[in-house]
From TrEMBL:
CDD domains: DNA_pol_A_pol_I_C, DNA_polA_I_Ecoli_like_exo, H3TH_53EXO, PIN_53EXO. InterPro entries: 3'-5'_exonuclease_dom, 5-3_exonucl_a-hlix_arch_N, 5-3_exonuclease, 5-3_exonuclease_C_sf, DNA-dir_DNA_pol_A_CS, DNA-dir_DNA_pol_A_palm_dom, DNA/RNA_pol_sf, DNA_polI_H3TH. Coiled coil: none annotated. This is DNA polymerase I. Its EC number is 2.7.7.7.
Length: 926
């Protein structure tokens, strides 16, 4: 897998507004405004022609609220809606991006800046440098040794020096400065009376926001002191608003950002459709004979829309008689499209507003439950007598839900939803349960994998050639935005009924493909039955000891101060900003004169973790600085942030699992991400120690032992590894013995470590260079080890060649259970792209197979525990690990059932082994 070297992340929303305000009005032949589209297209074309980036993405904001709206409802609430002539151009700029075959990324609940921060982090961690194409000051907090910004309007790079010029501090302190001075454009409150210069001075004097607020009483200026003391909470809230999230589940895998050659036909058709003749001339593309908007082709098979349009008949249900008629119609149909409307994005806190049903294409209704619209409807006409002055009364919620309960629980009526996990969560809060379900999001995911997104709007455009009513059209934007319960009933009916209608239409297109494409088993045994299991897991959550986390945060804070003092002492007592790569570079390579320094293209010394690790054996300062960085990240990312994620009603943290996000079928966790809590360091384990069982209970951690290596032995039919696993011996010692021809008894630990590195790295395409760096040996020695490994286990090379051929033939590889893992780029003319796809193909059946196995175990566990009369509940899934909570008196019995179910989840030629322990905390149980 060739990692990215240079990643270009384009702030698409910034491009759109700059283009719109920078160009005079323009319209295409049908009258649609296109000045922003034209400007966006020319800017993107110029960027792509000038950059050396090998991975590129354009990142957009969505119209929906984000998590910041829940933290501070006034956030961006004052912003006016976009100009009317700009609104129809938003989807067209996304079409422009796809016409260049560039990845188009957006995600509901998060801003584009959060996605940019996440992709930048992932790119840097893979060793790449990043260019963020934007001048947005909020993104300046991301600038660092490997991350720069580029303003395409002023043709200038933005590095640490430019950030310091803007904010008076380095990038690492930008968030603290913004938290103090606020941001009027986004309605971030900050501290009244504190401007950017004062904020920068305060942060420079005290080091960070927390220290400043803790010592605010020491400030000599009375007015400033009182302002800070009175508005400390506003400053902390502001910090939450301005700090970018860098842990968002990647909606598109990094590999999909790889640059692809532009298809002249696709780009030409797009430009012709918009009337961009001058661009066609500049691109030297002949105009196609038709002028229709184009959609980027997907790698996976797609359905086509019906030949004839469907007439819509949407009904607003306000009487018991009408409700009974719809329920009877749905029961008779046996399949009903279903959707809920709520007041928010968090299913555990959102209020149910209404329910929509669809019984046939175009035939749907909306049933308000707790709707409270404004009095003046204006356009609503229920009885043919013209607009009414007052909002009609809706049925009492108890009546509506009482009538709907039997329908939802009727196993003979299939309820079809899109991302039903959310709807089931909301209904579960009201004591309602859905029986017999189909989920069009999961149908799409099973059929087409990661070849495209699986949001309802995207699938409707892709399969039905239909653009759904936008949320902003009914709820508004900025300061005029309202929650759905305040939307006029006529608009609410059109929006909600359309969702149920389109979901049912998608179901009729996608469900038959399961049989045609032999994907029934994957959907019916892995994805659909997992939904209610995940619903219960998310609702249970996991208890977190708030006091322990806060104490840990304080301890980390004290230790950071101590480490800073150590580092400064090692710098001959000369203070410097430990978070500043520029200052650190000068200390390492100019003051201490350490060897091996390299400068980036911006002229700064490189000070990444890899550089510090290489220097650690030459001087103690780099080692202490690594400790400081690690502790600072743990404090900001985990101990501080997790406290804010605790649900006040339950005292527990409730993560959300994305069911259709990854290439290989793995679940991903967010809000908060509990799959990335570190466990390899003492400090990281302390964080897991704060995850605790309820009184009288224990947490149980059940973890598959070396499951991916066992899958390699099985699918590649490696007899030597099979025998080693069957014997239950130390697999890495056995491998070292077999590969290097030494006795297994008393084997050299260094040799075992090398065998372990190859065992775990070989299936991911580890190179001699990568193995050499990992083990600290020469490239030649590493190559000798890899050659010896293949010589001892020739079956693995045969498996690799066989799998690559399967990918070239089909465009995908399959897991043991039939899941398709798509491999775009497997026939790419670019050798690096092709090699990347080949490595993904080799890894797909292994990582995907492991994901399938643990899903099979998760589906079977609830019934197995219930049949055994055990009260244990599943709380978390973290890759190959399940975390449960059980009464203390039932832990032994629960562990026995969990082991039996997990070890029996698949029948392989090697045994599946599960390590399980019970303890008071997650750390102790692991």
């Amino acid at each position: 897998m060739t990692p990215p070297r240079h990643v270009f992340l384009v702030d698409g929303s910034g491009f759109i507004f700059r283009a719109f305000h920078g160009l005079p009005p323009m319209t295409r032949p049908d009258g649609t405004p296109v000045n922003a589209v034209y400007g966006f297209t020319t800017m993107l074309m110029k960027l792509l022609s000038e950059t050396d980036a090998d991975h590129v993405a354009v990142v957009f904001d969505t119209a929906r609220k984000t998590f910041r709206s829940d933290i501070y409802p006034a956030y961006k609430a004052h912003r006016p809606p976009p100009p009317e002539e700009l609104i129809p151009q938003f989807p067209l700029v996304r079409d422009a991006t796809r016409a260049f075959d560039v990845c188009c990324i957006e995600m509901e609940g998060f801003e584009a800046d959060d996605l940019i921060a996440t992709y930048a982090r992932a790119a840097v961690e893979s060793g790449a440098r990043v260019t963020i194409v934007s001048s947005d000051k909020d993104l300046m907090q991301l600038v660092g040794a490997s991350v720069e910004m580029y303003d395409p309007m002023k043709y200038r790079s933005i590095g640490e020096a430019e950030v310091r010029e803007k904010f008076g501090v380095g990038p690492d302190k930008v968030v603290d400065v913004q938290a103090l001075c606020g941001d009027a454009s986004d309605n971030v409150p900050g501290v009244p009376g504190i401007g950017i210069k004062t904020a920068a001075q305060l942060i420079s004097d005290y080091g960070d926001l927390d220290t400043l607020l803790a010592r605010a009483g020491e400030i000599k200026q009375p007015k400033r002191r009182e302002t800070l003391l009175e508005n400390a909470d506003l400053a902390r809230i502001s910090r939450q608003l301005v700090r970018l999230r860098a842990d968002v589940p990647l909606p598109v895998p990094m590999e999909d950002l790889a640059v692809k050659p532009v298809n002249p036909e696709t780009l030409g058709a797009f430009c012709a459709a918009q009337g961009f003749r001058s661009l066609l001339s500049r691109l030297k593309i002949k105009a196609p004979p038709i002028a229709e908007p184009v959609r980027a082709a997907t790698a996976a098979p797609t359905s086509t829309a019906p030949a004839s349009p469907v007439t819509t008949d949407y009904d607003l249900v306000l009487t018991e008689a009408a409700l009974d008629r719809w329920i009877a119609e749905a029961t008779k149909a046996g399949v009903v499209g279903f959707d809920t409307e709520t007041t928010g994005l968090d299913p555990l806190r959102a209020q149910l507003v209404g329910v929509s049903l669809a019984v046939a294409p175009g035939r749907a209704c909306y049933i308000p439950v707790t709707h409270n619209p404004p009095q003046a409807q204006g356009s609503l006409d229920l009885g043919g007598s013209g607009p009414v002055a007052d909002a009609p009364k809706i049925l009492p919620a108890a009546v509506t839900l009482g009538r709907l309960t039997p329908l939802l629980a009727d196993p003979s009526v299939l309820k079809v939803g899109h991302n039903l996990k959310y709807d089931m969560q909301v209904l579960a809060g009201l004591g309602l349960r859905i029986e017999a379900l189909d989920d069009t999001m999961l149908l799409s995911y099973v059929l087409d994998g990661a070849s495209h997104g699986h949001g309802l709007d995207e699938l409707c455009r892709l399969h039905l050639d239909h653009t759904n009513i936008a949320f902003s059209e009914v709820c508004g934007t900025g300061k005029t935005q309202v929650t759905f319960d305040r939307v006029p009933l006529d608009k609410a009916c059109a929006y909600a009924a359309e969702d149920a209608d389109m979901t049912l239409r998608l179901h009729r297109l996608l469900k038959p493909r399961l049989l045609n494409e032999r994907m029934v088993t994957v959907y019916e045994t892995l994805e659909r039955p997992l939904v209610p299991v995940i619903v219960e897991m998310e609702r249970h959550g996991i208890k977190v000891d708030r006091a322990a986390l806060m104490a840990l945060s304080e301890d980390f804070g004290r230790r950071l101060v101590e480490l800073e003092a150590e580092v400064i002492a090692l710098n001959n007592g000369e203070a410097f900003n430990l978070g500043s790569p520029q200052q650190l570079g000068k200390v390492l390579f100019e003051t201490l004169n350490l060897p091996g320094g390299k400068k980036t293209k911006t002229g700064q010394w490189a000070t990444g973790a890899d550089v510090l690790e290489e220097l650690a054996h030459l001087h103690p300062l780099p080692a202490r600085l690594l400790d400081w960085r690690q502790l600072a990240k743990l404090k900001s990312t985990y101990t501080d942030a997790l406290v804010a994620e605790i649900n006040p009603a339950t005292g527990r943290v409730h993560t959300s699992y994305a069911l259709a996000a990854t290439t290989t079928g793995r679940l991903s966790s967010s809000d908060p991400n509990l799959q990335n809590i570190p466990i390899r360091t003492e400090e990281g384990r302390k964080i897991r120690h704060a995850f605790v069982a309820e009184p009288g209970h224990r947490l149980i951690s059940a973890d598959y032992s070396q499951i991916e290596l066992r899958l390699v032995a099985h699918v590649a039919e490696i007899e030597g590894l099979r025998t080693a696993f069957a014997s239950g011996a130390d697999i890495h010692a056995i491998t070292a013995s077999q590969v290097f021809g030494v006795p297994v008894e008393g084997i050299d630990p260094a040799l075992r470590r090398r065998a372990k590195a190859i065992n775990f790295g070989i299936i991911y395409g580890i190179s001699a260079f990568g193995l050499a760096a990992q083990l600290g040996i020469s490239n030649g020695e590493a190559k000798t080890y890899i050659d010896a490994y293949f010589a001892r286990y020739p079956e693995i090379r045969a498996y690799m060649e066989r799998t690559k051929e399967e990918a070239r033939t089909n465009g995908f590889v399959t897991t043991l259970f039939g899941r398709k893992v798509f491999t775009p780029g497997i026939k790419d003319k670019n050798g690096a792209m092709r090699a990347f796809a080949e490595r993904a193909a080799i890894n797909g059946p292994i990582q995907g197979g492991a994901a399938d196995i643990i899903k099979r175990a998760m589906i079977r566990l609830p019934d197995a525990l219930s049949q055994a009369g055990l009260a244990a509940r599943m709380l978390l899934q973290v890759h190959d690990e399940l975390v449960l909570e059980a009464p203390e008196t039932e832990t032994d019995a629960t562990i026995a059932v969990v082991r039996r179910v997990m070890e029996g989840a698949a029948s392989l030629s090697v045994p599946l082994v599960v390590d399980a322990r019970a303890a008071l905390s997650w750390d102790e149980a692991h």
